[in-house]
Design a protein that fits this description.
about 230 residues; TIM Barrel; 9 helices; about 40% helix; globular
Amino acid sequence: MEQQIDTVALAERLSRVQSDVASACSAAGRAADDVTLIVVTKFHPAALVSALADLGVRDVGENRHQEAREKAAELADLDLNWHFIGQLQTKKARQAAQYATAIHSIDSERLVDALAPIERTIDAFVQINLTDDPGRGGIEPGAIESLAERILETPSLHLRGVMAVAPLEEEPARAFERLAGYSERVRSLDSSATAISAGMTHDFAEAIAAGATHLRIGSAITGNRPPQR
């Protein structure tokens, strides 16, 4: 049975988040249009993405390749920017490159090499691990320059900046302050790589205060995820 989309509630949630983002930008002395709001639609149907598009949303985030590919194909007639934000296997990289406008989870030179042969240009974000757990997504800070340089050497990739998830066990403001420092290191290699992909539902205000340019917000806009079968 196809899920019914409550477009009124969806519009209200979107408007509320947009207002909160604007308030956070104002508090940080920034313009709201400096920040790109990416609506994360993991597990939600293509119909919800279509409804978001009707409300003016153009930037959509997905973190599972198969789901993202299917939605992008179904909604190919819409003018959407698909942001891949999950961990990406090298063997799936070229397939993701067929629909993704941006990949926020570049975390290895092997992944960069897998994306090198594609015939279009994709925005690339260096994902950085802000924890001491090597099992978490992202590269360790000592490898930032080498990975960024590899991206800069790859014509199919456009280095936009950095991406990270704030650790649950740490104050978000402190984590994002470190990320801002890592962003400066990337900008020392390419002054145009100014983007910072950071901030989710619970910590986007702290991310904005630290200079985030791309927010990844899901359930606060989309509502609860439908039950998985």
